[in-house]
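user: can you give me the structure for this one chain? tokens are fine.
assistant: on it. calling the predictor now.
[tool input]
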Amino acid sequence: MRVLFAPETFNLGETSRGVEVARRMRADGHEVIVCGYSTRFSGHVTDAGLPLELLEPRLSEADADRLLAVDQGRAVRHPFTVDMLRRRVRSELDLMDEWRPDVVVIGSTMSTFVSARAAGIPLVYVKPYAMSRGHLSSMSDFPVVAGRGRLATAANAVAGRTIRTVGQRLTYLPGAFRAVAAEHGVCLPPTTLEALDGDLNLIASLPPALEPLPLGPRDEVIGPVYSRTAGELPQEVHALTATGRPVVYVGMGSSARRDLVLAVLEAVGALDVEIVSGAGRYLTDADRRRLPRSVVMTDFIPAHRLAGLVDASVTHGGEGTVQTACVSGAPFAGIGLQAEQRWNIRQCELAGHALPFTARQLRRGELPGIVDRLLRDPRLREAARKVRDRAAAIDGPAAASRAIAALAG
């Protein structure tokens, strides 16, 4: 069969999920192609040896930053005007007409909810559990506010109840989506959740794969899907293990900021540890020269290869980064930059192998103590090993390949 993958290639986690499922489907004998609008992480597609079609209109770096800001709740304005959506849908339909896929697999590629329906092609949405229909229907709290204080707990409980009640009935969609859908004769479902549902939603998260959680009517759990890119670790990383000092990985995904990365590196650098990080793209040359000698900094690192080499991690809480931390067998500390990331960290905290921290705790100098606890607390370390062993039995990309083939077959 032919499978068209359409992740938003400005988002690293989403691009990585698409690449891993596409690689597995190709290994299973299917023909695949990937399309996207941003060059930010499109190199991960071509580095995996997958064919890539960059469509028009290209997404500028400024627009990609705006979309990330909306995703993190730092902004409400998005670049999806009627003209942009009209051109995106036209580009996608032209590619579908030329290539004739049997199924389209997406991340949060909003325009494809219109184009796939207009083309009459089954749509598969690979997504996290957080904010899925099953999660929305059952949430009792949602961490819109960071921290564990009385006010934060009360606010998050109210947010959870409100989202659970209102989310099921919400009918809002930006006017541009309804307008472009109407131009192509697509009648969008009445509620927001239904309109943004695939014919099949593959839940690529660890919690529902380990413990049963409520699911939506079109949801199927496949388990973790995280980046396993080709390439080796820098030789300097292997050399760290010979120093006898603990090794801490700092991973901030694609949604962090320069000031946050510098603050975290400075805090962890105060400990008697070695540090490896793939967050170099956030830093200037001057920033890198200021880093402690104990830091091995790269623009990108195949973090899945750090399993067995690192003793702890500090992450931003993104789905892929958290999954990589889970399979490393080492505990981690997480600073959620948005509610979904805080939810990811909270699930790992409940499982006993993660500690959350907030921007306020970082400013107050508490991160070194948190990382020191990760390195010394035997309960955290044993819980991390147990999660690693349970996760090792789950092959998310293989489950995704089977589910997609079954839908289209």
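assistant: here you go. The first strand starts at residue 2 and ends at 6. The chain has two domains: 2-224+394-408, 235-391.
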